[in-house]
Amino acid sequence: MSATQDLVKEFSQLKTLPHVAIRLTKLMADDNTTVKDFEEVIKTDPTLVLRVLRMVNTPYFGLRQKVDSISRALVFIGLKGLRKMVLTEALKEVFNGGEEDPVFSRQRLWVHSAAVAVCSQMISERIFGIQGDNAYLCGILHDVGLIVEDQVRHDLFREACGNLAPDSYLPELERQYLETDHCAVGSLVAEDWKIPSEVRDAIKRHHQDLENVSPSSVTGIVQMAEYLVSKLDYPVMRGMNSRLSPPLVAHIKENIQEYKAIARDFPEEMKKAKQIYES
Length: 279
Hints:
Blueprint: H1 3-13, H2 19-28, H3 35-42, H4 46-56, H5 70-77, H6 79-95, H7 106-127, H8 133-141, H9 144-152, H10 154-162, H11 170-178, H12 182-192, H13 197-205, H14 218-231, H15 246-254, H16 256-277
Helix pairs in contact: 1-9, 1-12, 2-3, 2-6, 4-5, 6-7, 6-8, 7-8, 7-14, 7-16, 8-13, 8-14, 9-10, 9-12, 10-11, 12-13, 13-14
């Protein structure tokens, strides 16, 4: 068994992700699942019931009449929207806790992940005209491997982080101390959670220097989003550099005005996301 598999196995045994979230993600991977199946699982978690109903009744959806049933709420939210909401809520709890220090903070990582998710969806929809749920999902999950490493190999992970310097590269330090990196770990976790293959692949490659990556792919979008939000002061760790593959550098330069508009509008979109998911 590889170091990556060892880490994910130990993490899964901790049952960190709520059982309801795991059941729902597996239902979403099954084409034969009905709305009734989702409703029955959601109803087992009173907190999730409240979250779904609160979300669908926010101004974001602009509904004239209040929705008070899960089945009707799912019609408006949609299954991709449900997956986004469930994993966002579940991961908020996963990212909580842990030892906070000047180098690595789970709270800062959560804010970074949320920022990458929002920015990824903006790029997907505004630049490429592509429905942005998978881009958002990848953004919120792309660094979950860091949580696994911090949870399961805490001391070694913190030592690796402590050696991060402006000219160093975190995945290389991770491989030196842990024999794997958070990209490989996060991709395997996503596979275990039945996340779409396109998203899993982007998680695995989001730090790689790729010569042939398409800017409109989930991998390309998340790389660019992580680069942009780091420039907007939402880094994972202070002094951590974000690599941008050559085709993505060229694409941003060719469309610089559009990306400047995204940077300008980003704070307002973050505010909207916070209203929806913290309502």
